[in-house]
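User: I'm putting together notes for a lab meeting next week and I want to include a structural view of one of the chains we've been expressing. I don't have a solved structure, so I'd like a prediction I can at least talk through. The sequence is below, exactly as it appears in our construct file.
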Amino acid sequence: MKTLSRISKIIHVFLYYRLYELIPKQKTPWLLKVMVTLFFWYPKTSKKTHSAHNLRIALEHLGPVWIKLGQMLSTRKDLLSEQLSSELTKLQDQVTPYPTSIVEQTICQQLEINSLSDVFCQFEQTPIATASMAQVHGAQLSLVEGQDPIKVIIKVIRPNIEQQIISDISLMLMFAGLIAKTKEGHRFRAVEVVQEYQKTILNELDLKLEANNGIKLRDNFKDSNDLYIPQIYPELCTSKVLVMERIYGIPVSDTNALIAQGSDLKKLAERGVRVFFTQVFRDSFFHADMHPGNIFIEQQNPNNPKYIGIDFGIMGTLNEQDKRYLAENFVAFFNRNYLRVAQLHVQSGWVPSHINVEEFEIAIRAVCDPIFNKPLDEISFAQVLIGLFDTARQFEMQVQPQLVLLQKTLLYVEGLGRQLYPQLDLWQTAKPFLEQWVDEQMGFRAFYKSSKENLPYWLEKAPEIPEMLHTGLTNLNNMPQLKQDLVEQYLQHQKQHRRFLLQLTLTGCGFLASLLIAIFSNLDNPYWQVAGVITATVTVINAIKVWLKIR
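Assistant: Thanks for the context. Below is the predicted structure for the 551-residue chain, given as structure tokens.
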């Protein structure tokens, strides 16, 4: 019933805000045309309101999951009209706020204080930013009496949004289950992808976890000239409240302001790529919500611009195996070694082993060669995406749920690079970094580093080596006898299995024979009576034996 209720609300929003007008008429499915015609009487918002505005309000109305979809779309200005992109950009930090009185009440409850003045000497009633999951207010914090107060922001989770998120996730799981039952559903692994997303978005509701993520990311970049992470005050952070240093910078989406202050946009775009690959391949811990509302640029040194990152609710991680395969894939791609790319996809299990590697290489080359060594403004991302989807379908490539966050983040990074410096050569910018990382992980330096780290362990185990060697040689000497024992066990198992099948067959035949005797024989004849009793007895005995063996 909850799922049906949610579906009805989505349909209501779709109709009320006239979202069907966003679909080009020549591409509108006939079923949708019929539905819109049948619901001509349904109340709808005014036709004078622009469709882009309606879409933004509708996404806000539907809740956090849908707002995040709008945020992701807003970074792709190359795929959207200017008006639609402008409206969706407001979802990054200009969602309709909720009453400040509820914010103050939540802060007091979470920090177990009577009033805000117990901790904060100043609190701004007007929110600085309002997003899908939380609302942000400025404040001043007095940690030590006699010292100047510290300017901070207080982030507070929106009330009553968890149930909305759970309802939407349940709906997504239902549709994912339907997709999984289709002919090619196994490739998309839709259920696993939604489950991964569910874990991610529910973690975002825990601001204590976000505080820990921010502290870890700050440690990773504490000496960096590329990225600054504000200080977090963990003693004032709870599951619904986060207190963090207030930063002042230019939003990365405000290109005009960056140009006006003389920022080096090329260097900024290159540093953005470097920050992304550093997080992924050096730290295996990356910011996975890098939409423009969460990224700012320092104002102090325009010629040497530095990023400022906020909002650490969604962080991604990679295991060593996936990280290595990804790095090798990138390096092979940058070197235009498409055969190696195809081989790595098969080795990693992303593509089935029966696929013809040479044919897969040709398909990858057809998609990737046209975009190689081209600046971002000359690449049609939509065409590349269609080509990759078609190749994935043709070669049974499975979606990797653990990489979905990384792919989403890469879309953000590519979108930011296109916006800041469209002439950026993404491939040549990233290639030196990845080649160095692969060399450090797989070359002589990697071997030396690994040997140095493991030397104490090897020295500790050295006295045990003679005994381990003796045990190994003894086991090797006993291998023929062990093999013979295994063969005998296998033959015995086969013999027992055949006996079980025989008893099962006799039981079935006995049951059928008993049934035929009961139906067609003359039970007044003593011979038939004896035959019936014997058949039934043998059948019951065999049935008991089969039942015992099954148990």
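A couple of points you could mention at the meeting. The chain has 22 helices and eleven strands. The chain has a mean pLDDT of 82.

User: Perfect, that's what I needed.
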